[in-house]
Structure formats: C-alpha cells, structure tokens
Amino acid sequence: VLDAGYQWISFDREGSQVDGITDLSAAQGYHISAAEYVDGYVYYIVDSSYFGSGINKLYVRPDNKYSDPVFICNLEHGTYTQLSYNYTDKKMYGIIPKDTFNVSGGSMLYSIDLQTGEEEFVAALDRNIFVMCIDGNGQFYGIVPRASIYFTFSIDDIIDKKITCKAVGGGMLLDKGMAICPVGAQSMTYDHNTNKIYWAAYSSRSLGGIEFDGRLYEISPDNNKLECVVENIGNITGLYIPTGKSGGSYQETNPT
Q1: In Å, what is the CA distance from 172 to each residue of 40, 136, 145?
Q2: 222 burial type by CB count under 10 A (0-12 exposed, 13-18 middle, 19+ buried)
Q3: Backbone angles phi, psi at 159, to 5 degrees
Q4: Which tops the pLDDT comparison, 171 or 45?
Q5: Region 79-103: what's the mean pLDDT?
Q6: Confidence of residue 239 (pLDDT cuts 50, 70, 90)
Q7: Which of 132, 148, 167, 243 lies deepest, with the highest CB count within 10 Å?
Q8: In whole angstroms, what is the distance from residue 231 CA to residue 136 CA?
C-alpha cells in the first residue's frame, strides 16, 4: 500500500510497476496500517484513528481484487502496524508498538483469528518492535524505530507472557555505511519463495530527521546482508508477497 495507506500498488523487485494504482482515498477515505497474504487472500487493517474515530477494522479480499472487500470485525486493542502469518502454527500475528518514532518502550504481540477477527494477547516484547515478519520455521524478525536495530524472537521464548528479543549480529542495519533511522508507517514481509526479507523502510536518513526517504531493502537472514533494491518508493505500509505455501486457514465463505 503506497502513500502511508491510501493506494494499492503492485511492483517487482526492480521497482517496475506491474499493476495500476488503485486510489482508495477518494472513495473510502481510510488508511491501511497493515496487510498480509494467506492462501490467495489479503487480510488488512483499516486504521480510522487517522480520521478521529479510533476504530480499527479487519477486512479480507482476494489478492487480485482491490474493490468490495469483506468486513470481518472491529478490532479492540489498538493500531496494528504489522500483520505476519506464521505457517508453522497456522496463525496470523499482529504487532502493536508503543509508538513508531521512538526506540524506548515495548510492543504487544497478538494473534488474530482469520475467520472471526478475535484477538488473543500473546506476549509483551521487551523492545518497541514496529515492523516484523515470520519465516517458514516460525522465526520472527523485527526492527525498532530510529535505531534500525534488527532483532529476532520466537513464541517459544515466551516466559510469563513476556519475550526478550535478541539483537542479530551487531544489531544495526546500515545502508552503504550509513545508519538507517526509520520512523513512522512502514512495513516488512518474508518472501517464502526466495527466503529473503523485504523491508519497505521510511527513514529520516539522519538522526536529525531533516530529509525523509522511502526505500525497499532486501535482507538475507543467513548472513544478515542488507541491500537497497528500490529507491524513492515513498511511504509504504501493508507490504506483502504472494506465495504458493498453504496456510490452511481460510474457507471461501463470508468469514463473518
């Protein structure tokens, strides 16, 4: 979703547009804060707090159909900045950070039932993770605002409903030696076709926050190598990649 949640756009790794932009703002007036692909369907969250009501709504649509989504339910616990599907336990997970501009604080991890939208608190993270993804083995990857520190965690690490995140390598992700300072709405996803992580980062490019820049990064989990593959992509939320993996969770009926 381009421009912080107002337009769907499809593009390849090199940044070429392969499908037209669908402008959602004029007709429906909402902000999409998170999205994830499962079994040919896209689940996404509309964050209406941008317009004062503070209601977050869960929708589902076929991947190739942008209009007429199915409303599942109103969500109760806050604004999710990321949805990630775990193929090991067949559950959708959502992250609610303290905020998207500061390192300090911790995030809340929930699971969300794809049929009913029922939310279940999973654990409190000791880091303010605001974007995340999950690989095919159930390993979570996440990043905190400002510092772009790269962490891993697992639901197997839960102790008393708390998770301690582990910094990967040196922790800091660098773009040509420069620290990435991500702030605000953005997204991350795991490509189950190539086993790569993709991060649509929106960063200030400096701690002073003077110049903002949107870039698509590719991260190799095996060596933590980071590469910028697309520049000047704007502010993207709800990044997802279709996969042939079966989630085994959605029946082709109205989930309500």
Answers
A1: 34, 24, 12
A2: exposed
A3: -130, 120
A4: 45
A5: 88
A6: very high
A7: 132
A8: 28
